[in-house]
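Supplementary Methods, section 5.1.

A reviewer requested that the exact input to the structure prediction be made available. We therefore reproduce it here, unchanged from the version used in the analyses.
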Amino acid sequence: MAKGKKTGGRQKGTPNRDNPLKGLLRAHSLAYFTPKPQLDDNGNPRKIVYTDKEGETVTALNLSNPDGSPREMSDFEVDMLMMEANDRVHAELRLLEFHQPKMKSVDIDVAQNVNITIEDRLRDLCDNPDGVTDDPDDD
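The structure derived from this sequence is encoded token-by-token as follows.
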């Protein structure tokens, strides 16, 4: 291969091949996050039933507007309503990983440089350990 010259592979500007799996996953994700009327199997507004640990119904939430029409919500929002608070927080944190990069932890050893004065540190930074300058105008 000639240095700096491309001698093989695809030509510049050639698009990637379509990946049907990526398209399917993208369509599924869009459908999951797109608001739609929340209806049960009978066409009535959907209900979310909250139960306790024994399986007893604690409360029910009707997904309907004040006029009785079904509320428009995404399936994601409905799933979030059905989760317990701890699970909701965990899901939100997992989703944030796709929007915010993780910060790396940085280890610093502050104990080794505790007794260095600022003059010593400046000398180290200037690569002039003895403090003598070679400036001819200092005579």
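The helical segments are 20-33, 75-82, 85-96, 118-125. These observations are discussed further in the main text.
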